[in-house]
Design brief:
Order of helices and strands: HHHHHEEHHEEH
Strand order of the largest sheet: 2-1-3-4
Mean pLDDT: 84
Number of strands: 4
Low-confidence stretches: none
Oligomer: single chain
Shape: elongated
Distance between the termini: 96 Å
Length: about 190
């Protein structure tokens, strides 16, 4: 094999320190940028959001690796990203207040069965997108939802409406009447 091939594969064209600093800077920028972009960018992706995230990853690639196309340079950059992420996640685990500042607070999208249109607008979530998310969690319509919360990570938690005590009592009476009717039917057929 040619020595130049091995050199191109494993010898970084930029200093190792630069290979470490570049991913850290890009990581910090992306954390801030995605936080400012809103929670929907994280989990409730539509086709446009997906295109933006894919293009974003391609755009910052050169900022991470610089003019280096070596395997070792890529490994150094990737390792730096993984280590920085590991350290940040562990650090935030023990610093809840800072984690809330970075991640944000949950937003209530539906409260008491009522849509909070101002919050939906602020988070750029359409009613159709909210309905689709509810369907994915087994709800037939938004009428069945008592509360919906947009979590800091971008997922939406849905809580079903609970029947009133009168509705529960009515259902119990109907079940008992059905049981009595079935018992009467069984006794008549036994005669």
């Amino acid at each position: 094999m040619d020595a130049a091939l091995w050199r191109d594969l494993f010898h970084p064209d930029v200093s190792i320190l630069e290979k470490i600093i570049r991913p850290i800077l890009v990581y910090a920028f992306l954390i801030v940028g995605l936080r400012l972009a809103g929670k929907r960018e994280l989990a409730q992706l539509n086709a446009f959001d997906l295109v933006v995230l894919l293009t974003l990853s391609n755009t910052v690639q050169n900022a991470i690796i610089g003019n280096d196309n070596s395997v070792s340079g890529g490994i150094i950059g990737a390792t730096t990203l993984l280590v920085v992420n590991y350290v940040v996640v562990r650090f935030l685990y023990f610093h809840e207040r800072l984690d809330r500042v970075i991640e944000g607070e949950p937003e209530t999208l539906v409260d008491g069965g009522q849509l909070k249109k101002d919050v939906l607008e602020k988070e750029l979530i359409t009613i159709q997108e909210l309905e689709e998310a509810a369907h994915k969690q087994g709800f037939g319509s938004l009428d069945l939802i008592d509360r919906a919360i947009l979590e800091p990570g971008g997922s939406i938690s849905f809580f079903a409406k609970q029947p009133t005590p009168e509705e529960t009592q009515y259902e119990n009476i109907l079940k008992r009447l059905d049981a009595i009717a079935a018992e009467l039917s069984r006794l008549r057929s036994a005669q």
